[in-house]
Specification:
The chain has 491 residues and is an alpha+beta fold. The chain has 15 helices and 18 strands.
């Protein structure tokens, strides 16, 4: 099992909020007050097949908690834990009738806390069944299914989709924002494998969306669907067969820049069967930062092929840690996966159209060596893209980022015990680093690494597809019922 980068946080993964978060605009509303007696919650409860959780009810705290702990005290007035499509319809109708703002939650992993609210949380996480039809090779997922449900259901038939590593992540959020994973270079993004979805719109309509029915909404949902147009209650994917895969995690603790450059040279020409992430991680060691370069991923081929591919990197420096193993596909995913323990983190992404230049590489390492430090770590990383992703045009669906060579991101992690001053220094460092990397990357960002600090987010997430998305928004959600700080605008 790959050691989780979240292991540091398990002892502090409660609902305490680190000092200074208001300063960074993260706590936009806090509610720890009793149930508002003016809101007819009992009326909603009577309409649900599922459960309505109110503050003080058993299970409320666990259901209210998001993955991103800096938002954990933005507490809903009520949580509708939907058991059916009818529950979704009832919740939508009730919230609009009573003028209670709503938010939709599947997995709760919004990096920006956009699946939190002080109003009504419509939680579809209990609708998490996955079925597979062997005659068509299609998998049907309910709207609340998570990666862990996909792992479980698709193991026996030996098929897969492009899925994530974090088992707790909701597939809805994954696919609606594009969907990356180690299969994407060989098989395309998660949204490329979506053949149909069912959406409940604000007026309660149940719409089937595919290439022939509600095509405009189907186009928009594949890359911009998360929380923008309706509530997705099912997804149908075309799966692909899987057999065995070589999985690897290799870390170098010396000659960092040379290792990074050599890895990049190899990976830029790697076959589509190579799916990988390269990470440069900084951890505090007294007054200095210890750095490490890690290659993680899978290859559809042999262990010897991987070793041959990496021979020139090994010639620069021997790894400080290495695992390279041939496993059955789903056993390999267990090696690569993380449970997704809640954490305090802020991630800022940029797509890169080509390899990072030597000046860009130096910028990465200079910034990581200058990291001011928290109780956890800071990481610059990239996910190799290209391959099958490029075989669709940027306007084929809402996901516009088709021509990039990699998704890069800077991730800052901290503890609740880190001081306000420490967090302020680190956030300033993160912003400066993000700006410094633009000349070596681009002004486009990955919408699933949604970032509350991104000021040019409309262009960064959607590029030339934005105007068409606004048209779809006006058609299917003309009253802007589904809205949050970075939702598709009406105008």
């Amino acid at each position: 099992m790959v050691p989780s980068r979240r292991r540091f946080l398990k002892s502090s993964a409660g609902l305490a909020i680190g000092a200074g978060l208001v300063q960074f605009g993260w706590l936009t509303g806090c509610s720890d007050s009793p149930v508002n007696p003016a809101i007819p919650w009992s009326d909603l409860a009577s309409k649900l097949q599922g459960t309505l959780l109110l503050p003080g009810n058993a299970g409320y705290s666990g259901a209210a908690a998001p993955w991103a702990l800096q938002y954990a005290n933005i507490l809903p007035g009520g949580i509708a834990r939907c058991a059916s499509v009818a529950d979704v319809q009832a919740s939508l109708a009730w919230s609009q009738k009573n003028d209670v703002p709503l938010i939709v939650r599947s997995g709760g992993h919004s990096y920006a806390g956009f699946s939190t609210t002080t109003g009504l949380m419509i939680d579809v996480s209990q609708m998490n069944q996955v079925s597979f039809d062997g005659s068509t090779g299609k998998a049907l997922l309910q709207g609340g299914a998570r990666n862990m449900n996909v792992y479980s259901a698709l193991r026996a038939p030996s098929v897969a989709i492009t899925h994530g590593r974090c088992k707790g992540v909701g597939v809805a959020g994954l696919v609606l924002g594009g969907g990356i994973g180690f299969n994407m270079r060989a098989q395309g993004l998660t949204c490329d494998q979506l053949v149909e979805t069912q959406v409940v719109t604000a007026d309660g309509s149940i719409l089937t969306c595919n290439e022939t029915t509600n095509q405009d909404l189907f186009w928009a949902c594949r890359g911009a669907g998360g929380g923008n147009f309706g509530i997705h209650t099912s997804f149908t994917f075309q799966t692909f067969p899987v057999t065995s895969v070589t999985v690897y995690q290799i870390t170098w603790a010396a000659k960092h820049e040379d290792i990074f450059a050599a890895l990049q040279t190899i990976l830029m020409s790697a076959p589509e069967s190579m799916g990988c992430k390269v990470a440069v991680t900084a951890k505090r060691n007294g007054a200095a930062n210890d750095l490490a370069v890690t290659l993680l991923g899978q290859y559809i081929g042999s262990v010897d092929d991987v070793r041959t591919m990496l021979a020139s990197v090994y010639a620069i420096a021997a790894p400080s840690a290495e695992t390279i193993e041939l496993r059955s596909y789903w056993d390999g995913q267990e090696f690569l996966s993380e449970d997704g323990t809640p954490e305090y983190s802020h991630e800022r992404s940029r797509y890169a159209p080509a390899a990072i230049s030597s000046a860009g590489i130096q910028t990465i390492f200079d910034n990581l060596r200058a990291w001011p430090g928290t109780g956890v770590a800071a990481t610059w990383k990239y996910f190799l893209t290209g391959g099958a992703i490029t075989r669709k045009t940027p306007d084929a669906m809402a996901f516009v980022h088709r021509d990039a060579a990699m998704i890069t991101s800077i991730e800052l992690e901290w503890l609740a015990s880190d001081s306000q001053q420490t967090l302020a220094r680190n956030e300033a460092w993160l912003d400066d680093f993000h700006i410094a990397m633009q000349p070596f990357t681009s002004d486009q960002c990955y919408q699933n690494f949604i970032d509350p600090s991104e000021t040019n987010w409309q262009h960064a997430y959607y590029g030339a597809n934005l105007d068409r998305l606004k048209t779809v928004k006006k058609k299917y959600d003309p009253r802007n019922v589904f809205h949050f700080a970075q939702s598709i605008p009406l105008t």
